[in-house]
Write a structure and sequence with these properties.
Structural class of chain A: mainly alpha
Radius of gyration of chain B: 17 Å
Strand order of the largest sheet of chain A: 1-2
CATH topology of chain A: Arc Repressor Mutant, subunit A
Order of helices and strands of chain B: EHHEEEEEEH
Number of helices of chain B: 3
Oligomer: heterodimer
Largest sheet of chain A: 2 strands, antiparallel
Distance between the termini of chain B: 15 Å
CATH architecture of chain A: Orthogonal Bundle
Number of helices of chain A: 5
Strand content of chain B: 25-35%
Structural class of chain B: alpha+beta
Shape of chain A: elongated
CATH architecture of chain B: 2-Layer Sandwich
Order of helices and strands of chain A: HHHHEEH
Shape of chain B: globular
Strand content of chain A: 5-15%
Helix content of chain A: 55-70%
Radius of gyration of chain A: 19 Å
Number of strands of chain A: 2
Chain lengths: 113, 150
């Protein structure tokens, strides 16, 4: 893959992660998982008012975005939180944010001169 | 917060002056470092090229959204689109909005860039506004999580 292709792929992945985070139900799931040990679907369902099917659907979206991953514990599937994609988004936003800081500083100089 | 960039800056210049610096395409170009082909018009695509040293090969393209005189100026674009070999046109666009408020020293300028989660174009703005409160609360929790475990 060339450099442009890699960056394009990174953009796509980033959009998927942003979209995955763009629902309150999924954010709530992330919070639960990030607070502690990996949990099974039934356990996640017990502590919320969602059905197992709904939880499964949302976990799939989070898994595709790489924010959670499933692990086997004995005969059971459990889901654990992965923070890497969130850190990646954070550093991306920091770069965009720094560009705006520079632009705002130039605007200030421009209108105050 | 993950889905929005927010800035606030106080400017020692009247609102009318700041408005001109934002919406006159030649003035905008001077501080933003872009050479624009023509004036900003709501609903129209603004084209040009970047004049920032080292990035002169890059094109500028944005779609002007709102121009409410001396109050609000917004456009959609592709953020951080810095690789000339990549066609960003199919990538998610974000909304950049400048909001101006007078204060005793001159102007308070608010900048937001939002929509990084790439909602479908037609419902991007409403959907984002509706989610905003939930976002603020939820993301601050995740943010504190990340601070604890960098």
């Amino acid at each position: 893959m060339n450099r442009g292709g890699k960056r394009r792929a990174a953009l796509k992945v980033r959009a998927v992660v942003f979209a995955a985070l763009g629902a309150e139900t999924r954010l709530a799931l992330i919070e639960k998982l990030s607070a502690g040990a990996p949990q099974s679907i039934s356990r996640l369902a017990d502590s919320s008012n969602l059905t197992r099917q709904a939880i499964t659907k949302h976990l799939r979206v989070l898994e595709d975005a790489g924010v959670v991953q499933s692990i086997r514990v004995g005969r059971e599937s459990r889901f654990e939180f992965r923070s890497e994609p969130l850190h990646e988004l954070q550093s991306y936003l920091e770069r965009v944010s720094a560009q705006w800081d520079e632009a705002m500083a130039r605007l200030k100089t421009f209108v105050e001169k | 917060m993950f889905n929005v960039i927010e800035k606030r800056i106080e400017l020692n210049a009247p609102v009318s002056r700041v408005w001109r610096a934002l919406t006159d395409y030649r003035e905008f170009g001077e501080w933003f470092r872009v050479k624009l082909d023509g004036p900003f018009m709501p609903g129209e695509i603004s084209t040009g090229h970047i004049t920032y040293p080292g990035y002169e090969h890059l094109k500028w393209e944005a779609t002007v959204q709102k121009m409410e005189s001396e109050r609000r100026f917004s456009f959609t674009w592709h953020p951080y689109a810095v690789d000339p070999k990549v066609d960003y046109s199919n990538e998610p666009a974000t909304l950049v909005e400048f909001r101006l408020e007078p204060n005793d020293k001159g102007t308070v300028l608010y900048l937001t860039e939002s929509g990084f989660d790439a909602l479908p174009k037609d419902r991007r703005f409403e959907a984002f506004r509706m989610n905003d409160e939930g976002w603020t609360e939820q993301t601050s929790n995740i943010e504190s999580y990340l601070k604890q475990r960098p």
